[in-house]
Design a protein that fits this description.
It contains six helices and no strands. It is mainly α. It has one domain: Cytochrome c/b562 (Four Helix Bundle (Hemerythrin (Met), subunit A)), CATH 1.20.120.
Length: 152
């Protein structure tokens, strides 16, 4: 029991930028964005009526919301383009931290509304489809400023 008491404070300390290899941080960031993309795809399929999994909608909406809350933490100092050629993130993700956090908050808010809609009985797929569009636009707002595209 004494060892557990000693370890608990260590477990609560978040990793600092210097504690993680930049390539590992980029890989984690990319995997996390991949998870966001997969949840967006499934919510879109549900909203369009392509699959009958309306009971799963809340799970995907909650996942989107939780990932949105974590998103700013995926960009620790020292893990940008200067540290890794593999990142698709633009320097603005670090130089405009306030903008990055605002963009993540927009995704968080849009996905929170999707959670609300997913709890309604019966589910209004027209409203859900419109809100999935809002969630997608919030993703795009972040991409426009903080992610390389084919033009960069």
């Amino acid at each position: 029991m004494r060892a557990l008491v000693v370890l608990l404070p260590l477990l609560a300390v978040p990793a600092q930028a210097g504690d993680i290899d930049p390539e590992t941080a980029v890989a984690y960031r990319q995997a996390s964005f991949g998870a966001l993309a997969k949840h967006m795809k499934t919510t879109g399929m549900i909203a369009k009526g392509q699959v009958p999994h309306t009971g799963d909608l809340e799970t995907h909406a909650v996942a989107l919301n939780m990932l949105a809350k974590q998103l700013p933490g995926w960009f620790p100092e020292g893990t940008g383009p200067e540290a890794s050629e593999k990142t698709a993130a633009l320097p603005a993700a670090w130089s405009d931290r306030e903008g990055l956090e605002k963009a993540a908050k927009a995704l968080e808010d849009a996905s929170a509304k999707l959670i609300e809609l997913s709890k309604q009985e019966p589910i209004d797929l027209t409203a859900v489809k419109a809100q999935v569009g809002q969630v997608g636009r919030s993703c795009g707002g972040c991409h426009d400023t903080f992610k390389k595209d084919d033009d960069h």
